[in-house]
Amino acid sequence: MSYVPLLISHYFTINKPPHHHPVFNLNRMPSEQRSFSFLQHQSHIPPQFIWPDHEKPCPHPPPRLDVPPIDLGGVLSGDPEAVSNAARLVDQACRKHGFFLVVNHDIDMKLVDEVHRGTDFFFGMPLEKKERALRKIGDHCGYASSFTNRFSSKLPWKETLSFRYSADRHLSNIVECYFLDVMGEDYAAFGKVCQRYCEAMNSLCLNLMELLGISLGVGGGYFRDFFEGNDSIMRLNYYPTCQKPDLALGTGPHCDPTTLTILHQDDVGGLQVYVDEKWHSITPNPQAFVVNIGDTFMALSNGIYKGCLHRAVVNSTTPRKSLAFFLCPRMDKIVSPPKELVSEGNPRIYPDFTWPVLLEFTQKHYRSDMKTLEAFVNWLRQKRIHSS
Ligand SMILES: O=C(O)CCC(=O)C(=O)O
């Protein structure tokens, strides 16, 4: 007999949680029941994890998206033909759905393996240890599981650890300091590995920004310069097994509010992207990184490039991991498209904003979904009308 659904529904009937409050009363639930290590063996899953019918995962795995990965080998060595070929492929993908894969990216795959191993180690720890890094309400860094989620329905079947990375030279050890300060000496080595991984991701992002500038016709330096000194986010995603994978989702359908996401998934599979009005599976390729355009880049390109709608499904046999690096602008940068991308035929779509305002919107007012940018723009306009 499973007690968790009973405990949860009891809590809901008595104490309807106000919006923005933790869903479960953590103090009332014994620690072992507040963890996925308990939930993943239950044949009944709590109703808060059951998604509405129209959003449930497809009963059979959807078709694979057949996209050849973009080879960055020639691009990184500056071969003009390779650059123009890659820019053309990036342009096609980003105008259509905002998703592509890259190989020969020059990232050390041993480093990627080390991050995956450290991620297994972290999520394999008892809840009390992981909760040393517990994310606070309204914050975007720290350990979170759906038990600490601020929403009361459509909960994702996952645990995450998110932390800040900054390319500002004054904050050059920010990731390793975070691990040491928040989780202690046991995590110092993993913190160093994550610091190196974020630096590698930063460098890949800047190279991709150069390619995106070329593909949009504004020149290689434009977006590269804009993202120098970026203030980004790294997230380790862990999806425990689920006995009802057809009812739940690891990550619901959403576009990333950030600028560009570089994702490495392990070999389990579960990432799906929405292309041509259908969900498609993205088969894991250990040598490749998945690249998604986020809402902030959609705004920077004046809507020419599309934010990629994606989600992650879970399964009943094998836990899954993914490593997501979210490139974000420096906090004081104004997100505004270059003048070359605005014309009479393509007038401005989104107002100017700064990244911390969009981040705050997604942390305090709105759960990221496929309409975040639209909702944010309406919210911003209302806010500006009221304050004028
Ligand atoms: O794990 C995945 O494949 C997707 C992760 C994701 O969408 C996210 O972290 O925002």
From TrEMBL:
Record has Metal-binding as a keyword: yes
Recorded metabolic or biological pathway in which this protein acts: Plant hormone biosynthesis; gibberellin biosynthesis; Hormone biosynthesis
Record protein name field: Gibberellin 20 oxidase 1-D
Record bears the keyword Metal-binding: yes
Matching InterPro entries: DIOX_N, IPNS-like_FE2OG_OXY, IPNS-like_sf, Iron_ascorbate_oxido_reductase, Oxoglu/Fe-dep_dioxygenase_dom
Signal sequence range: none
Record-level GO BP terms: coumarin biosynthetic process; gibberellin biosynthetic process; response to molecule of fungal origin
MF (Gene Ontology): gibberellin 20-oxidase activity; metal ion binding
Domain Fe2OG dioxygenase intervals: 229-329
Source species: Sesamum indicum
Substrates-to-products reaction catalysed: gibberellin A12 + 2 2-oxoglutarate + 3 O2 + H(+) = gibberellin A9 + 2 succinate + 3 CO2 + 2 H2O
PANTHER family reported for this sequence: 2-OXOGLUTARATE (2OG) AND FE(II)-DEPENDENT OXYGENASE SUPERFAMILY PROTEIN-RELATED
Family per similarity comment: Belongs to the iron/ascorbate-dependent oxidoreductase family. GA20OX subfamily.
Cofactor(s) of this protein: L-ascorbate
SUPFAM superfamilies: Clavaminate synthase-like
Key words of the record: Iron, Metal-binding, Oxidoreductase
